[in-house]
Amino acid sequence: MAVDDADRPLPELTDDEQQALHALQLGIEHAYRAYADLLGCHHRTGHAMDRFAEAERLLRAVGHDEYADVIRDRLLPAGAVEDRWTYELVTAFRRGLVDELDAFETAVRDDLAGGLDHVSERAQQRAWRERAESGEWDEWGE
What we know:
This protein is mainly alpha-helical. 70% of the residues lie in helices and 0% in strands.
């Protein structure tokens, strides 16, 4: 099955321009992966805090109010970094660095490649397909 614009003509770029676009593409992909890792940290922290909330209830039920109070008053309401909860870190990272990197990569790609992404991969795909002696690769999507 063909990708939406896989047959779109490739922009005429110098090798350095194509390499720069490829570096930007990889950069934004790594930024997205960092964001995903931060989301994972957010979710794992939330699950950890759920366990502490459960421990508070269990400790209180068996008469250890002093430990339960520490969980309730100090640990559960505390932030992960200073007073910031992980959702605030996730939001700040996305709205700050990720959005800024994404906007920059998009602007450069729009200017140099008419908005076409993965220019290097598309060129490689076309070269390998043109080199192929059969059309067997085309049968995979059927």
